[in-house]
Automatic annotation (TrEMBL):
Transmembrane helix among keywords: yes
Phylogenetic classification of the source organism: Bacteria, Bacillati, Actinomycetota, Actinomycetes, Bifidobacteriales
Name listed for the protein in its UniProt record: Uncharacterized protein
Keyword entries, A-Z: Membrane, Transmembrane, Transmembrane helix
Record bears the keyword Coiled coil: no
Length: 739
């Protein structure tokens, strides 16, 4: 009987494994078919539409509008923007025209003469006198040179550029056949989307795998996944270090824009002083009020130079008002080490520092999210954990910092890394039983704390004072996080007062204060030198120098109005997305203010770009639910995260204005506070409702991914992709404009 039962079990098990393998293979084949159909059919609709194109050579002759003039070297010059066009005959056999650029030799000759030839040109095709959509073409993207213009007689390509622009067009060809194209990037994105849907769909096997942080297999899987962005980060950092050049730009009569601010700080520190080794013109030094905009404009008109934009000017010297900790962590060590073989050392560009810091944030944001989930919902599925890790990264606005890697992003990236690392260490300093202790505090919570982790977490969080100071409010999370331990310490202190003998009282007091000292002493070791650094520079330990920056207004007297404050808070959280019918289908949203204030173009507020973050607002109302599961301590902590995120929103709105990058200050805290409700939705006990909720969360998460990707292509944002990487922008744009 035993052998028969064993055989039955073996056969059933083998059959289940065979069926599972069969389903996996079928899914892979189906995904392959979908990718092939989408890439070879849907994305190549222009090829199939233009198969019957005549390619008539008579269409090679162009008529130039009176607003364009052909130079001897073959370039076109715009002399009248209202009549700048190229017209060509069409026979209706193709819905597309092709812009033929001038030879590379012509472009090189113009560049050698110091002339600026447009490599990206805005055009508007008119088909049979019917205006089509405005678009742009780029010499760096061969696919973008094909423009859709369905005409039966004539096509007029209007050049929409200002007078004096040099246009690198040789001709416009009608009746053309669009070539068949396979884009590796598009295929990769399709595969990624299918993989995510396959892994996160409600019927995925990942929903049946519970989270087990002690599992070697799950740890290795996480390590492998994190290694992918790690390798990409290493490649970017090496490329940035090898190709590093000074980023300083100056035009006569204008400000000097120097983006190597952190390298200047590193040099100053290595030379033993706090001020930057930058020239100070005598006219600026002698000015009665160098912060006054009119005074500075007059100095620039008089030829006073250099006047550095967005540097702090105080008592006749230049300073950086950005936090010094990133310089101590990265820029100073790199220049010091490279000075061993290069005289004076090499410069670390911000483009290398930001990816390093952001990769650290990616790692510890995921680890922190997993640790919080383990405390809130210990046996939740791996599918839910992976979705929520991606959600936290998207809601944190990390994509903005990965994209825009200049010195403005350095302190924010450093604070994101230090804050998530510090909280991860603090959460790991206590055992779950102590973390979830009841209000009576009877658990021996103090003895369960790891003093080294407490101290290391304090160092990280205190270091925010020297990065982005608003992040230091995260330190208040220590109170709800360690509330049982605080109650136990208070009780020990009360008992110590009544201990017998002075020696006994002292020992009892010191024993009770071990944990508080492990938090406070390391924090003071970090904060006191930073305050001293401020004292040396600006004669006050609490003055970080932002009031002395040379910028669009006099910051020594500027204060954000309260009407601006209210609107800025509303924009940060609720600014709606603005959709358009043209690529990238998303546009920056106007953010009018009653009075002048700093504003940065942004597509929407946090809750519009990351709607799942709205779940954070439910956190205060989940106390009874979490208390029933024994998670009162985490309810306090996550509710505090919500309150701290609102506090940082208020601080940013009052002190910094409206900046897209500033969403990174508080977005991750909102995301962490959203975890309890999202975990309830993803781990619902009712099967049908659970299926619907998982589909809803998946749809919103994919929506967030789409918004994040599209926001990289926005017109009007700082460091537009159409300017920084015109080839990539137009390659992706052509996926949509030609169909």
């Amino acid at each position: 009987m035993r052998h028969a039962a064993f055989r039955i079990i073996f056969v059933v098990f083998s059959k289940q494994r065979f069926q599972a393998r069969h389903r996996v293979r079928a899914a892979i084949v189906a995904a392959f078919v979908v990718v092939v159909l989408v890439e070879c059919v849907l994305c190549n609709v222009p090829f199939f539409r233009s198969l019957a194109a005549s390619g008539d050579s008579a269409a090679a002759y162009n008529t130039l509008g009176p607003g364009l003039e052909r130079r001897d070297d073959g370039l076109l010059e715009v002399i009248d923007p209202t009549q700048a066009y190229l017209q060509v005959a069409a026979d209706g056999s193709s819905d597309y025209v092709r812009v033929v650029p001038v030879p590379d030799e012509v472009l090189q000759g113009a560049e050698q003469q110091g002339e600026r030839v447009l490599r990206t040109v805005r055009v508007r095709p008119d088909a049979d006198r019917r205006a089509c959509e405005l678009t742009s073409v780029s010499l760096d993207s061969s696919r973008s040179l094909y423009v859709r213009a369905a005409a039966g007689r004539t096509v007029r390509v209007q050049v929409v550029e200002p007078k004096g622009s040099l246009i690198p067009f040789e001709a416009v060809r009608a009746n053309v056949r669009v070539p068949f194209s396979v884009s590796p990037l598009r295929v990769a994105l399709l595969v990624l989307a299918l993989v995510l849907v396959a892994l996160w769909r409600p019927g995925s096997r990942l929903w049946k795998v519970p989270l087990d942080t002690s599992s070697v297999r799950q740890r290795v899987a996480l390590g492998v996944l994190l290694a992918i962005p790690g390798v990409a980060t290493a490649a970017v950092v090496v490329w940035q270090l090898v190709s590093a050049v000074p980023l300083s730009f100056h035009t006569d009569g204008m400000y000097t824009y120097d983006y190597d601010q952190y390298d200047h700080v590193a040099r100053a520190l290595l030379d033993g002083h706090a001020w930057l080794d930058l020239d100070v013109p005598q006219g600026l030094r002698d000015a009665d009020n160098p912060y006054d905009v009119a005074t500075r404009q007059q100095l620039l008109a008089d030829g006073v130079s250099p006047v550095y934009w967005d540097y702090a000017f105080f008592n006749g010297r230049w300073y950086s008002y950005f936090g010094v900790v990133p310089a101590l962590l990265l820029f100073v060590p790199y220049r010091a080490v490279t000075s061993l073989w290069v005289d004076g050392g090499l410069m670390m560009p911000s483009g290398a520092a930001v990816p390093l810091l952001m990769f650290g944030f990616l790692v510890f944001a995921c680890l922190l999210t997993i640790r919080v989930i383990k405390r809130v919902r210990p046996h939740v599925s791996v599918a839910a954990v992976s979705m929520l890790c991606v959600f936290v990264l998207l809601a944190s606005n990390a994509s903005y910092l990965w994209y825009r890697t200049n010195f403005y992003s350095v302190p924010i990236a450093a604070s994101l890394l230090l804050s998530t690392l510090g909280l991860w260490l603090w959460l790991g300093a206590e055992r779950p039983s102590a973390a979830n202790a009841g209000e009576d505090g009877k658990v021996n919570a103090v003895g369960s704390l790891s003093l080294p982790r407490l101290a290391a977490g304090s160092v990280c969080i205190a270091a925010n004072v020297g990065c982005r100071p608003s992040f230091v409010v995260v330190a208040f999370a220590a109170f709800p996080l360690f509330w049982p331990q605080i109650r136990a310490i208070a009780k020990q202190l009360r008992d110590g007062v009544f201990a017998s003998g002075a020696h006994g009282r002292a020992c009892a007091m010191l024993h009770a204060l071990r944990a508080p000292l492990a938090v406070l002493v390391p924090a003071l070791v970090v904060v006191v030198p930073l305050f001293a650094y401020n004292m040396v520079r600006f004669s006050s330990p609490f003055d970080f120098g932002s009031s002395y920056q040379i910028t669009v207004t006099d910051m020594t007297s500027y204060h954000q109005s309260w009407s601006n404050f209210i609107w800025t808070v509303a924009y940060y959280l609720f600014l709606p997305l603005r959709w358009t019918n043209m690529f990238p289908f998303l546009a920056v949203d106007p953010t009018p203010l009653k009075d002048w204030g700093f504003t940065e173009a942004m597509p929407g507020g946090l809750f519009a770009m990351a709607p799942l973050a709205l779940a954070s607002l439910a956190c205060p109302f989940l106390r009874r639910h979490m208390r029933a599961r024994g998670h009162t301590g985490m309810w306090r902590t996550l509710t505090t995260f919500l309150l701290l995120s609102l506090l940082i929103v208020a601080l940013d709105a009052r002190l910094g204005g409206l900046g897209w990058r500033y969403i990174a200050d508080f977005g991750w805290l909102f995301a962490l506070a959203s975890l309890p409700l999202l975990l309830i939705a993803l781990d619902c006990d009712r099967p049908r409702l659970c299926w619907l909720l998982r589909v809803l969360v998946l749809a919103l998460l994919l929506f967030m991914l789409a918004v994040t990707v599209l926001s990289l292509f926005l017109y009007g944002r700082d460091d537009e992709l159409i300017r920084n990487n015109s080839g990539l922008f137009h390659d992706v744009q052509s996926w949509f404009t030609l169909i």
